[in-house]
Amino acid sequence: MAAKQINPFLKSALEIGPILVFFAAYLLLKDRTFTLGGTEYQGFILVTAGFIPLMLACTAALWKLTGHLSPMQIVTSVLIVVFGGLSVWLNDDRFFKMKPTLIYLLFGTALGIGLLRGESYLRTVMEGVMPLKREGWMILTRRVTALFFGLALLNEVIWRTMSTESWVYFKTFGLTAAVFAFFMTQGKLFKRYGIEEAEGKAE
Q: Any transmembrane segments, and where (predicted)?
């Protein structure tokens, strides 16, 4: 079932808003320590605890308004609950920092399995946004698969070798910028393999 169209600003706010709130809250509380039930928690853990219900509420609102959630949105929500919950429960920020790695590994692996079967699973979820010929989808899928594995590796390097603050900046802006830059460099592929609207109607 196709997703209902909603105000693009509202859609962006529901998708990106929780991440920006997480970033702002982290900057506000990063140097503070809180004692709850006799246990000390760093600001990062408290911010993570607040991020989980906020992200779920925004995802639920998107589903309510559009009647649709992408596989990535569903998997991301599940992993946020699992790994964010583990970070809060065990008072260990490493679990939450691993989440992007697992997201990119899961989707990179899924796309890779599709490629081994001669299929583009990326086409299944994005064809309505970017109509391409089959060969174009296969090339783009191979590139996106490599991108996902590369981002998974990069996230591991960042959180294991740099400070929590550096990782938060990377998670908030770096990953988004990397994906945006990647698609901006695919212009030649879209131009070469794109399906014109008239051609699509003729078929």
A: 12-29, 41-62, 74-90, 102-122, 143-162, 168-185
Distance between CA atoms of residues 81 and 87, nearest Å: 10
73, 19 in Cβ contact below 8 A?
no
Task: Write out the two tokens for 123.
Answer: 């086409």
Find where tokens 């919950």 sit.
Answer: 85
Q: In whole angstroms, give the CA distance from residue 64 to residue 59.
A: 9
Q: How far apart are CA 91 and CA 44, in angstroms?
A: 10
| Spatial CA neighbour of 195 closest among 155, 119, 136 | 136
pLDDT of res. 2? 58
Statement: residue 200 has pLDDT above 90: no
How distant is the alpha carbon of residue 186 from its chain centre? 19
Residue 131 — φ and ψ, nearest 5°? -70, 115
Domain boundaries, the chain: 1-90, 93-198
User: Could you report the per-residue pLDDT of 82-128, keeping only the tens digit for each?
Assistant: 999 999 999 999 999 999 999 999 999 999 999 999 999 999 888 76
Q: Smallest Cα–Cα separation from 167: which of 35, 56, 47, 13?
A: 47
Question: What beta strand segments (E) does the chain contain?
Answer: 33-36, 39-42
With CA atoms as reference, report the closest residue to 73 among 103, 52, 53. Answer: 103
Beta bridge partners of 132: 194
The average confidence (pLDDT) of the chain is: 91
Task: Tally Cβ neighbours within 10 Å of residue 151.
Answer: 22
